[in-house]
């Protein structure tokens, strides 16, 4: 059975052995999949909308609603056509680097290969997560860990259908979700460092380290479960 220490050590070793490409890929993944721009914009629009409603400014309300709709549509399109392929290519890079440190930065582009399959699989995964989130946060969090291996499996096994990729991820994570959650929690000190350094710690250490560790966990689960 894998341990948090061994997985983190493998992830750290692979990350440090190929430092700058890992930082670059990690930064792209974080910027495109973090969702901070949309969240901030939505919060700002909500405040403006409330103020306009209270003051009875009908035209202002209509303008804010249109702006909110445009931001929402653009965010969805960026998620589907850019962020999801970058996520797949990024995790493919970190998996290759965990297997043999020295993977090239250009591997991040591989997420755009076989775009239709990537589109269908990650769209289905995201829809499942949205439906689980409608139930409450905890079920969505649990399912998030169930589906966390989807980007790795999708790239390594393109012959699998979207539902088969999601099912394999769920099966791989059976009995490992809690420990994977604790693994993520073990980075809380590095996360605090990222906050204290105004995000620099996240960019140059915490996030690429965490991505590399997730790739190391995937390889360890494959090994223990005898998967191809």
Structure at a glance:
Helix 1 packs across helix 4. Helices cover 81% and strands 0% of the residues. The chain is mostly helical.
Strand proportion = under 5%
| Amount of helix | over 70%
Stretches where pLDDT falls below 50 for ≥5 residues? 35-46
What sequence of helices (H) and strands (E) makes up the elements?
HHHHHHHHHHH
Measured between the Cα atoms of the first and last residue, the distance is 18 Å
Describe this structure as you would to a colleague:
- This protein is an all-alpha fold.
- It has one domain (4-32, 82-225).
- It is 81% helix and 0% strand.
- It is built from eleven helices and no strands.
- It has helices spanning 4-17, 19-33, 36-55, 58-99, 115-135, 137-146, 150-156, 162-173, 177-185, 188-196, 200-225.
- α3 (36-55) packs antiparallel against α4 (58-99).
- The longest helix has 42 residues, at 58-99.
- The chain starts with a helix and ends with a helix.
- The relative contact order is 0.15.
- The model is unreliable at 35-46 (pLDDT under 50).
Attribute tags:
228 residues, mainly alpha, 11 helices, 0% strand, globular
Q: Topology of this protein?
A:
Blueprint: H1 4-17, H2 19-33, H3 36-55, H4 58-99, H5 115-135, H6 137-146, H7 150-156, H8 162-173, H9 177-185, H10 188-196, H11 200-225
Helix pairs in contact: 1-4, 1-11, 2-4, 2-11, 3-4, 4-5, 4-7, 4-11, 5-6, 5-8, 10-11
């Amino acid at each position: 059975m894998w341990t948090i220490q061994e997985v983190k050590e493998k992830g750290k070793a692979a990350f440090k052995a190929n430092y700058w490409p890992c930082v670059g890929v990690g930064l792209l993944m974080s910027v495109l999949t973090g969702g901070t721009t949309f969240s901030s914009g939505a919060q700002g629009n909500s405040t403006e909308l409330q103020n306009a409603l209270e003051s009875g400014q009908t035209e202002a309300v209509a303008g804010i609603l249109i702006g909110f709709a445009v931001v929402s549509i653009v965010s969805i399109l960026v998620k589907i056509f850019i962020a999801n392929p970058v996520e797949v290519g990024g995790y493919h890079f970190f998996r290759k680097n965990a297997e043999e440190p020295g993977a090239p930065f250009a591997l991040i582009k591989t997420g755009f290969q076989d775009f239709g399959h990537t589109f269908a699989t990650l769209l289905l995964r995201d829809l499942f997560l949205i439906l689980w989130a409608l139930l409450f946060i905890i079920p969505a969090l649990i399912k998030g860990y169930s589906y966390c291996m989807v980007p790795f499996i999708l790239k390594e096994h393109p012959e699998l259908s979207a539902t088969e990729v999601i099912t394999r991820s769920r099966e791989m994570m059976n009995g490992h979700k809690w420990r994977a959650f604790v693994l993520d929690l073990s980075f809380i000190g590095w996360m605090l460092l990222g906050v204290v350094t105004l995000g620099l710690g996240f960019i140059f250490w915490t996030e690429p380290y965490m991505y590399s560790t997730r790739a190391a966990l995937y390889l360890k689960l494959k090994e223990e479960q005898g998967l191809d």
